[in-house]
Design a protein that fits this description.
2 copies of one chain form a homodimer.
Chain A lengths: L1 H6 L2 H12 L19 H7 L6 E5 L4 E3 L7 E7 L1 E7 L5 E8 L3 E2 L12 E4 L3 E7 H10 L1 H27 L2 H18 L6 E3 L4 H8 L3 H13 L3 E4 L2 E4 L2 H9 L5
Helix pairs in contact in A: 4-5, 6-9, 7-8
The first copy, chain A, binds a DNA duplex (30 and 30 nucleotides) through α8.
Chain lengths: ~260, ~260
DNA sequence: CGTGAATTTGAGCCCGCTCAAAGTTCGTGG
DNA sequence: CCACGAACTTTGAGCGGGCTCAAATTCACG
């Protein structure tokens, strides 16, 4: 599948794939989380097949787009898990976010028309392709969609501020705790267990996001385990004391 | 003026003030930088007095809005300089950005309807008040305005990513250099000298933005001066070797 | 000109990084 | 099915950049 996708003319592949995939927001189980939140069923059906041009599969480790690519569409994660990252001049990577089902990827590229980050799948994934031209046209027809997109972009800005708060003013333990709590919250909102985290990213990727090294992340997790806050088994983390994790953020340095 | 503004009924104050101020984007000298970029003169005149409800003066040190305040408007800086900052649970402040003429403040509050940050003027300033309800209505009438707002919000997201890159993967010297270069770029785009920076923020505020202490910022600036990259005289910084500053980012550790 | 805040400078320390090695998991091919 | 190897994770030891604490100095403002 991967080789097929890469070898085919992208245009051709997209139409083939779209036909096979039954692109319909109204019957998608993510419609309570994803872009169409707030739209009535009538509104949704009215724009059916127009909001989402097609779907695309992205295998684990594969790149959805690269910094510098033309940004004429954004992507909604349908299944799977992504990371986006920027690169500094000397080649340092900074992961700017992890995206899970229902979240949009590529919004930062709208300004310049070119993507500002790389987006890579951390597990086999599927995304909905949302062409920007079509999206803007539909926004004008549906104020609810317009409001929704504004909120999504505003939220993305606020998420960035939160990341700055973590990176700029928190210690390693606080950063890791905030990160885990954030994941728990987002997974919980999607109906998954909020205490059993199957991490999709490596320690190194966690570290690259949090401004720490993989070793520090590992040590911090081990430390949390020693405190009885959670149990680590590789990439599976069972949070046994969510309130305790929250207390790490509160500034408590107790046991 | 400050006491007048605070004591009066806000509604009354706003209308009095609006009348006095000649609120007109079409004759504003920031129209090439600010929200209306890309609008034709006809479009601009058509929405005159609707995009900007009023203006508001904010004295140095005064708060434009606080985190938790209702966010029913965003603000365009007309004159002056602002900082926005978030607070962590234990009260740490993290400055999330500095805003100068033509830049919008308050976009992160659109999602929740409540402002996520505090906005404080660092010098006597004036802002244009842009009610969100009116803005969204106008967007539907003017695709150019819609596109412009999308680009502004997208840009804000990208700026956040850049800040994450600085905070997460740069050393003190690189952060300060990147910060100065960013200021130079923005001032240059506004027709100011791009090499003579009159900093509006304290060393502590710079540090709070960059995830450093005021002492480290001071030492770093002194170090740059010793290398001949710039001359520091309090808050006035004359950049004598912009390329050298750029080289600090490039990873060169030479003189 | 006096007062208080901001900045600079110094000295010492600590958290997280670097380097290194052992242990674990997982994919791959024999 | 098992053996091997590569990648990831954990753990340890030592170092260093930036923080903390403190004092001197300069500047802004009344």
């Amino acid at each position: 599948m991967k080789s097929l996708q890469n070898s085919l003319n992208p245009q051709l592949f997209r139409s083939l794939h779209a036909a096979a995939c039954q692109v319909q927001c109204s019957s998608c189980n993510l419609r309570e989380i994803c872009l169409p939140v707030g739209l009535t069923r009538e509104e949704l059906e009215r724009i059916e097949h127009r909001l989402v041009a097609s779907r695309r599969k992205v295998a684990r480790g594969e790149t959805l787009f690269r910094a510098g690519d033309r940004a004429d569409a954004v992507f909604a994660v349908r299944t799977g898990f992504f990371k986006t990252f920027a690169r500094s001049q000397q080649g340092n990577e900074q992961i700017t976010g992890f995206q899970m089902a229902g979240e949009l990827i590529g919004l930062s590229g709208i300004d310049s028309g070119l993507h500002e980050v790389d987006a890579v799948a951390l597990e086999d994934s599927q995304v909905c392709v949302i062409p920007l031209a079509e999206l803007e046209a539909l926004e004008r027809e549906l104020p609810a969609l317009q409001a929704r997109l504004h909120r999504i972009m505003s939220h993305e800005i606020a998420v960035g501020h939160e990341a700055m708060l973590q990176l700029g003013s928190m210690h390693a333990e606080e950063r890791v705790a905030a990160f885990l709590l954030n994941l728990m919250h987002r997974l919980g909102a999607r109906g998954f267990s909020a205490t059993s985290l199957l991490l999709r990213m490596s320690r190194d990727e966690m570290g690259t996001f949090l401004g720490l090294t993989a070793e520090t992340v590992s040590r911090t997790l081990t430390g949390f385990q020693a405190k009885g806050l959670l149990v680590v088994r590789q990439r599976l983390i069972e949070v046994t004391d969510p309130a305790g994790l929250q207390r790490v953020l509160g500034g408590a340095d107790a046991d």
